[in-house]
Amino acid sequence: MAIVDRAFQVDDPLAPSVDVSVDAPEDFAGGAEIIPDGMGGVTVQALLENALETIDQITPFLEHGANLAEYLDDSILKELASEVTQNYEDDLQSRQEWEESYAKGLDLLGIKYEERTEPFEGASGVTHPMIMESVTQFQAQAYKELLPSSGPVKTQILGLKSPEAEAQAGRVKDFMNYRITEVMSEYDPGMDQMLFYLPLSGSTFKKVYFDPVRGREASDFIPAQDLVIPYSAVDLDTAPRVTHVLKMQDNDVRKMQLSGAYRDVDLGSPESTGTPDQVKEKVDDIDGRSKSFSDDTRTLLECHAELDIEGFEDAGEDGEPTGLKLPYIVTLDKDSNTILSIQRNFDPNDPLKRKRQYFVHYKFMPGLGFYGFGLIHMIGGLGRSATSILRQLIDAGTLANLPAGFKAKGVRVRDNDSPLQPGEWRDIDAPGMDLRNALVPLPYKEPSAALAQLMGALIDDGRRFLSLADSQMANMQGEAPVGTTVALLERGMKVMSAIHKRLHYAQKTEFRLLARVIKENLPAVYPYAIAGAPAEMMLSDFDDRVDIIPVSDPNIFSMSQRVTLAQSELQMAQSAPEIHNLREAYRRMYQALEVQNIEEILPPPPQPQPTDAALEGGALLMGQGAQAFPDQDHDSHIQAHIAIAKMGLVAVNPMIVAGLAAHVLQHISFKSQQMAQEQLQQEAMQAYQQQGAELGGQIGMAAQSGQMPMDMAMGQMMQIPTMIQPQMPTPEQIQTRVSQIQAQLIAEILPMLSAPPPDQGGDPLVAIRIQELAIKSQEVQNRTKNDQEKLALDQKKLQQQAVSDASRIELQEQVSNDRVQVSRERIAASIMKDQNKGNR
What we know:
This protein is of the alpha+beta class.
């Protein structure tokens, strides 16, 4: 009889199937469960000790992301579920006081009016809105900064910048902003709600992961009460376990089962009578909600922990278990205590098997432990005190306006069971006594001015915690000095600045996790057309060359601060425009005001373009500037400007002559640079040729003297061009030569601009001085000409020397070849002579 072992119901075709033959089913008692199939055979369900051997056979063939719960025995799963549940209960108990203080602090929001019967019926139950005001102000400010309408992501290039890297950074930024603002529908409302919870609890969380039901990346907001951390945890990266309490509809759990993410097991009906935690109770009470008995919400525990699961132990190089706990994600249904999935939580290519992080911790202010401090912790005492004083003032006013008191025993008030209403007069029976003596009111006082003053001081202290700088900026009269403005801004917003930097860091971590999820799960093609690159570049774009960061500035956290700083910069630029870029200061001011299309309001200044000499001269005559460019014909421009300077009307105008001289100097600068480059390159080439000739001469001499074989000498002669390299001029050499040429050109050209007009007489002394200058200029020209002729002669000598050296080398080679030929003929003759002697 053939019996098939089906210890594990798996879809993997590599799962083992073992056929065994037995004499009788009783032989398997205690080792397996035998189930007849009604067709002449039975199914043997292996027990735990046999199952583990099968796990060892299956494990090598499992995918890294497989649901390990499908392959484990029920007894192992139950034991693991008990361990996870017990750890969760212990961690939850360790933060009991945190939950109590957080729940009590939610009363300070004042959303729900408190009906009070103490100290008297109808006493005021109003709550001062200090905490709510601070929360809403922070939420509105942070929401605008962290999630602008254009998208919260920007990129920066790591390392050297290039056009390809900049294009890649632009594609990554545009795609992530597109996904966040258009595809991830939960991101905007989740961020909005998170920024409301954050100043209350002090800690909120984001979970970044790939959602198989939605088929895309997701970033969900998690309140602090739904993420349970062990008592010893310091941060998320080093926490031994992190438990996420998930509230899922029964139908959503079924979707996860059908998608293969969860085990397809019967979980029964979700419990509807469970008691929620303290924070959840308080939130429901404030919202005015209560749990319905028909609610089909399930509570799942997703535990990110390090475990040593039997059958999937970490093995060393020898194949033996090391006892090291590995990171896993265990998801179980809390109501039925049933494990739905177990997944490895480390990269398969990571030899250290470090856990992968999915959670991001947003902190309002750092606390003494894992959780941060919020407004409830920081100014909750001020809020309670302000609420208490406010209630006392209202109650004092109520009692002063509607006093109570004592009446004489014989006095009877009709209908005395019902209270007096404001404005009501009721009949009194007062037998023979004065009514003023029969009624004695209690000594209620008017609301205390001291209490009102104290409440105002408490409110100011609380508001100063977050919004001091804005109030100071509003109270400033006129334009304060720039230093005063910046000092007040710095002093007043230190707390908010630190909070914003923490939010900026957390959001940067969130975007990096999101980029990792996009890289690992999305297709390698952009869903839209991109400029300058194929759409298939998407997968390669998400690499380590581009750093993804928030668009918010960690140093600026509000529009008022941004505008104030931009205004201060503009004031400084206006005070000294000669040393500032005034247009850039105005552009930053418009940018701080979030003005769109700034180029239409503030067009860029026109860039100068090369023109001919006549237009340049006309602009200079009109008192306008002119710009020289490197590729112009500088000699022609200089001659034209000199001719203009010698015009009668121009020569007598020093301002125009000075403008022409300044423009001529620009041409001289560019011309000297060109001449310096040409001269130094020519000298470098001459030196290269001379060095080659000298090296060739040395090789020829060595071959002629017999120090080097002729074949080797000829080979080295051929390699001379590769053995030496021309020495290119250094920047220092170029600058030195430019200065020398400029001095020469200035001495030649500028005197031409100062010559008097030919048709006008002048002072004889001036004429004599001009002649002297002309003579000196001519001497300088002659000296320059002689130097140039001498330089040309030297160059010609060098060329002749090179030719003569080459001829000498060639002659030496010819003589050497002739000697070799003579030697060969002598050797041949000697050999013939010896042969003839031998024949005789």
